[in-house]
């Protein structure tokens, strides 16, 4: 991988927003950044990874297009916009970091990356020197997140559709400031998508859960707009209104569901006071029944052919 353009700025609530300057890249910095980019690519290729995100609007798409394929001046201008968008969304509890932006070529594939590298043990003097540009990146790589530990980053490549980007945001459930600043809509991992689907069924048509759990693995994976109508052909009672409601709930989820992986089993968990019952959703649907008692309260019944094992920890 050959990095052709690279710049970095301190990102903190009170940072100065100095104009980004293209930096020389020595061997240590090259290896450090290449490892980070390689790790993002490997994460994205994992079967358990979320699908690529999409740009929330044309402005975000244009920013990353200039970062990926524009002139050097366009690259710098995009960095400046992203830096401001990010710091505007940071507060005094958000950890400072370096926003490293780069463009590279790798076996004929052009890519651009944005890495928010957390400063592990920031001091006032270090932050001041980074903000002014006195400290070079090569002097602080040991103080930054190591490859494999990156919490937040974006990667766009020539192999991806123009309106998509790989976005790593490991803490997005607690704080969405990074993905929002980048202008990227995130989608759930396959298991999270299946959890959202079954939760929607539980809320809309719990009486059909058994039939749906049985029928779903027989279908091909795909977007909800395709899978749910196909599922309705195998499940009596899945009328058009219910199909529309399920699709709508998945579209309106905090992280919209774009794909239902019908081959993926997930765990169903029942929390009852201090008692937890859990297992594969298919087995739980067959063996576990929850009923409301007439005199008040609830009953959980587990029916098995064999004697259950009991252990204590």
Largest sheet: 7 strands, antiparallel
Structural class by SSE content: alpha+beta
Spatial gap, N to C terminus: 50 Å
Shape: elongated
Any low-confidence stretches, pLDDT <50, length ≥5? none
Summed up, the helix count is 10
Number of strands: 11
Helix and strand element order: EHEHHEEHEEHEHHHHEEHEE
- Global Rg: 24 Å
Helix proportion of residues, in percent? 25-40%
Total count of domains: 3
Spatial ordering of strands, largest sheet: 1-3-4-5-6-2-7
What does this structure look like?
By secondary structure, the chain is an alpha+beta fold. It has three domains: 2-185, no CATH class; 190-251, no CATH class; 267-302, no CATH class. It has ten helices and eleven strands. The protein has helices at residues 27-45, 58-69, 72-89, 124-132, 177-182, 190-204, 209-215, 224-232, 240-251, 281-287, and strands at 2-11, 53-55, 97-106, 109-118, 152-157, 164-169, 184-185, 267-272, 275-280, 288-292, 298-302. A seven-stranded antiparallel sheet has the order 1-3-4-5-6-2-7, sandwiched between helices. A hairpin with a 5-residue loop joins strand 10 and strand 11. Helix 6 packs across helix 9 and helix 7 (209-215) crosses helix 10 (281-287). The mean pLDDT is 91.
Defining traits:
alpha+beta, elongated, 3 domains, single chain, 11 strands, 313 residues
How are the SSEs ordered, and which strands pair?
Blueprint: E1 2-11, H1 27-45, E2 53-55, H2 58-69, H3 72-89, E3 97-106, E4 109-118, H4 124-132, E5 152-157, E6 164-169, H5 177-182, E7 184-185, H6 190-204, H7 209-215, H8 224-232, H9 240-251, E8 267-272, E9 275-280, H10 281-287, E10 288-292, E11 298-302
Antiparallel strand pairs: 1-3, 2-6, 2-7, 3-4, 4-5, 5-6, 8-9, 10-11
Helix pairs in contact: 2-3, 6-9, 7-10, 8-9
